[in-house]
Amino acid sequence: MEKVIEIKNLTKSYGSLIALDDFNLDVYQGEILGLLGPNGSGKSTCINTILSLLKYDSGKIMIFNQEMKPSAYQIKRKIGVVFQDVAVFEELSVKENIDYFCGLYIKDKKIRAKYVQEAIDLVSLNEFVKFKPKQLSGGLLRRLNIACGIAHKPELIFLDEPTVAVDPQSRNSILEGIKKLNDDGATIVYTTHYMEEVEQLCNRVVIIDKGKIIASGSVDELKNMISLGEKITIELNEINNDFIKQIKENKNVIDVTTNNNIVHIAYYSKEGNLENLIDYLRKNNVSYTSLFSERPTLNDVFLNLTGKELRD
Q1: Does residue 271 sit in the same domain as residue 169?
Q2: Could you tell me which of 119, 184, 112 has the C-alpha nearest to residue 151?
Q3: Phi then psi for 305, rounded to 5 degrees?
Q4: Which of 19, 104, 107, 275 is the most buried (most CB within 10 A)?
């Protein structure tokens, strides 16, 4: 696969703080790459250096096989950026905003009109083209922000938390639009703290912490990196200390935690746990109201690799 982004030995520091430490990353044509990391991991610094919004200490950034620099306008025309903070003109309507941002790259009026309408269609804003931003809900504003960033049909798109603080309907609409952009050929770098979105969208995931990549691969490959194989949650009619003790003695059990009458059991292996547990409950007359099993999630992987400590 052809590389769209190639980062070699990138280092960026803020005084004594090293934000990116000899950082290397490749992004391939046609993929949706999930770029994840806790607060302060270097994720935002990485994106800003790629876009030449930040100077870096050493290393090299290549985009479309050309070195990326602040003056590399021929590269920047092929890039679309949608930052977390909505950035539109309050005095312009929805359509005027999209037309303005598209016009920064597309000068032909007929082509621009076509692209603007296609962006409006993509984010389902046809009913709101004459509205001003202050008249829009949070979800509609997010969709407008995306339309402004992608209307010129960029080949490479950076999406930073595009669904933050929106309702499920708007989130679903945005995710469908992102899939459509990718189906149409765009390469996408996607950052979010919503792990279920990454599982739904991304072909490959890169997790950054302390300025370095600590894990990379498909969602399934990342899940196979951790020891957790299965999680079972059981709600007992009443807490049973003998049951808890017996479960903890199982060699396949990683951890047992309780919250009132709810017991969470983490297992190494994912084979036969549910059947064995149900059999034990039946034989020992342990009564329960609910029981369910789930495989490790990307959130489990993220916390396992980056830790559970709060970040600034």
Answers
A1: no
A2: 119
A3: -85, -30
A4: 19
Q: DSSP per residue over 126-146, as a string?
A: GGGTT--GGGS-HHHHHHHHH
Angle CA 36–162–166, to nearest 5: 120
* Percent above pLDDT 90 for the chain: 94
Buried b (16+ CB within 10 A) or exposed e, 127-150: ebeeebbeebeebbbbbbbbbbbb
Q: Is residue 72 part of a domain?
A: yes
Question: Which of helix, strand or coil describes residue 77?
Answer: coil
pLDDT at residue 93, as a whole number: 98
pLDDT band of residue 20 (cuts 50, 70, 90) is very high
Query: Which strands form 17-28's sheet, in the order they lie side by side?
Result: 17-28, 3-14, 58-63, 66-67
pTM to 2 decimals?
0.92
| Main-chain dihedrals φ then ψ at residue 142, nearest 5 degrees | -60, -40
CB 231 within 8 A of CB 290: no
**Buried b / exposed e along 182-199 (16+ C-beta atoms within 10 A):** beeebbbbbbbeebebbb
What are 268-288's pLDDT values in tens digits? 998 899 999 999 999 999 999
Same domain, 214 and 270: no
Q: Which residues contact 44 (CB under 8 A, 6 or more apart)?
A: 160
Q: Which helix (H) or strand (E) holds 155?
A: none
Domain count within the chain: 2
Full residue range of the structural domain in which residue 21 is found? 3-223
Q: Tell whether 264 and 289 lie within a shared domain.
A: yes
Same-domain check for residues 125 and 260: no
79-82 and 156-160 as β-strands: parallel, antiparallel, unpaired? parallel
Averaged confidence pLDDT in the chain: 95
